[in-house]
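Action item from last week, closing it out:
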Amino acid sequence: MFETDLLQGKRVLVTGGGTGLGRSMGARFAELGADLVICGRRADVLEEAAGQLRRLRPGGVDVETQVCDLRDPEAVDAMMAQTWRRRPLDVLVNNAAANFIAQTHKMSYRAADSILNITLHGALYATMAAGSRWIEEGRRGTVLSILSTSVFTGRAFTTPSAMAKSGLLAMTRSLAVEWGPRGVRTVAIAPGPFPTPGAMERLRPGPRAAGGNTASSNPLGRVGEHAELANLAAFMISDAAGYINGEVVTIDGGQHLRASGAEDLLGWTDAQWASLRATRS
């Protein structure tokens, strides 16, 4: 589908790049010629991922790991400065996020902040840190933010995440106009269900998983495959997509046209919610 050197010479930072969809996207970028920087909060997870990513091209892939708490703007700026000392970035992928299902009226402020601080604030900090350097140095750059289809439908019981993702869509559209003349593109992808172990544990815990699978509610009758999202992301950050700016591309099999994805939770009893909260205490 793609030329093998589609991303040759590009240096790409993937936040949350040690696991899940971030790791899958990073692997595809590496296969297509990119060098990688992956960041996260756990050094052991990053190093394990880096070891596998380095073997994806003959001769090896340049993979740098950065332990960083995206909730801390000073830590984000320090990470970006250290990354730049080796070689400037060409692409930032805002992938790191936090989410879990909860009744909004029973969430603590701290729980809400734990989602907003990573998903919204962390992505904004990283975008500002990369963008300021690109603009000051007169370099071209691309920011790809991973959203969700909740930006179109809203999503009950994951309100802070829907708010955060909608904020990133506003950031994408705003900076497309502000930074486009400076040579910096901002684009986004809104994925539907692409199962990962972490997401399944937080968003479809035992009682919910037993109620049916997400494939049955999808017009295409299945969930997404990581390779499908990774290929779309590779195209969006490539020069082949150089005239796409300020846009979000949906990849969900058409599921958001049928439902937001939270309707099954409307029927949960107080006892079911109490049982879920007990597992998190």
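Closing note: The longest strand covers residues 184-191.
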